[in-house]
Amino acid sequence: MALPERETLPAADRRDRNIDSLRRYFRLLEEGAIDEWSTLWAADGTQLVPYATGALPREINGRDDIRVLYRNIASGFERLRYLLLEFEPMADPDLMLARWRPLCQLVGGGIYTNESFGLFRFDAEGKIAHFVEYFNPAGFVENYDSFSEE
């Protein structure tokens, strides 16, 4: 049940809700459940990838385009798990810093791993409104063609 428009959850409750959303975000990625994962995003959510090069877009706008990109990437993973997963709440309860280290067994053979961190902004409903992702670009760019269908 949604709260009336003027009511918002207390800051501590919003922070807890957003941490739970991030746990679910990474769990669903590990499971390859991209359609369910995409429901964590606001319809007009955006992702910015400052170090993107090549076929990886620097900016993705809208839940539908984000879902397509991640479905494409996930199709190249035989298995994904996170060796490290940490969340750091910020002073603003709707802003979270996450740090993770993926380990991916690629469908085409080989392993992809990297060190990543990102800043997630959540909207009033607890959906991801904006996500800025930072990672070591060398490892990702070298492997992008190995785990995408494009």
Q: How much helicity do the residues have?
A: 25-40%
What is Rg?
Answer: 16 Å
Count of separate DSSP helical elements: 4
The major beta sheet can be summarized as: 7 strands, mixed
CATH architecture level-2 label = Roll
Main structural class? alpha+beta
SSE pattern:
HHEEHEEEEEH
Total domains: 1
The beta-strand count equals 7
**Overall spatial form:** globular
Give the distance, in angstroms, between the N- and C-terminal Cα atoms.
41 Å
What's the rounded overall pLDDT mean? Answer: 89
Strand content: 35-45%
CATH topology: Nuclear Transport Factor 2, Chain: A
Protein name: SnoaL-like domain-containing protein
Organism: Streptomyces mimosae
InterPro entries: NTF2-like_dom_sf, SnoaL-like
Pfam family, one: SnoaL_2
Give an overview of the whole structure:
By secondary structure, the chain is α+β, with helices and mostly antiparallel strands. The chain is 30% helix and 36% strand. It has a single domain (11-147), classed as Nuclear Transport Factor 2, Chain: A, CATH 3.10.450.50. It has helices spanning 11-31, 34-38, 63-74, 137-143; strands spanning 41-48, 59-61, 77-89, 95-106, 111-113, 116-122, 128-135. The termini are far apart. The model has no long low-confidence stretch (mean pLDDT 89).
